[in-house]
Amino acid sequence: MTYFKGQKRKIKSAEFLYKTRGFLNAFIRNADIVKMANMAQLVNVIAQVFAEKDGMFLQTIYYTLQLFANNMFGTSLDVYVGCDTYYTNEFYLGPAEQATWQKDVPYLDVSATYTMAK
């Protein structure tokens, strides 16, 4: 694991894409319930932008959030995607939590919005 000065964490591309993009899609899919959401990754030690004496470093999280911010606005759509599914291995929901596994997990995780053209 690589760390920057002050213990700022460098995020691997796959780590962010697999973990955090699911939250972003869930926020869009549940927009009828979720009116405001925040992610700790935006402000804590694994932030999207690192500024140091030698310059600025944009992590992969920055570009993914930029894509969502610029393209996912308007009305959230109830999207159905038919695709193959898989079974997960056993995993824990959090520290000292109960183990679980999931079945019929779709390979595609999607969300969509619609905005009327001006």
Q: What characterizes the major β-sheet?
A: 2 strands, antiparallel
Secondary structure: helix percent: 10-25%
Poorly predicted ranges: 1-7
> How large a portion of the residues is in β-strands, by DSSP E?
15-25%
Instruction: Please give the count of helices.
Output: 2
User: What Rg, in angstroms, do the CA atoms define?
Assistant: 17 Å
State the assembly state of the protein chains: single chain
Which descriptor suits the 3D outline? globular
The H-and-E topology, N to C, reads as HEEHEEEEEE
What number is the mean pLDDT? 78
Can you list the strand order of the major beta sheet? Answer: 1-2
Count every beta strand, where a strand is a DSSP E run of 2 or more residues. 8
Separation of the first and last Cα atoms:
47 Å
Based on secondary structure, the structural category is alpha+beta
Observed structural traits:
single chain; 118 residues; alpha+beta; two-stranded antiparallel ribbon; two-stranded antiparallel sheet; 2 helices; 25% helix; globular
Structural summary, described in words:
By secondary structure, the protein is an alpha+beta fold. It has a domain at 5-76. Helix content is 25%, strand content 17%. The protein has two helices and eight strands. It has helices at residues 13-29, 60-71; strands spanning 49-52, 55-58, 75-76, 85-86, 91-92, 99-100, 105-106, 113-114. A two-stranded antiparallel ribbon has the order 1-2. It is globular, with a radius of gyration of 17 Å. The N and C termini lie far apart (47 Å). Mean pLDDT is 78; it is low at 1-7.
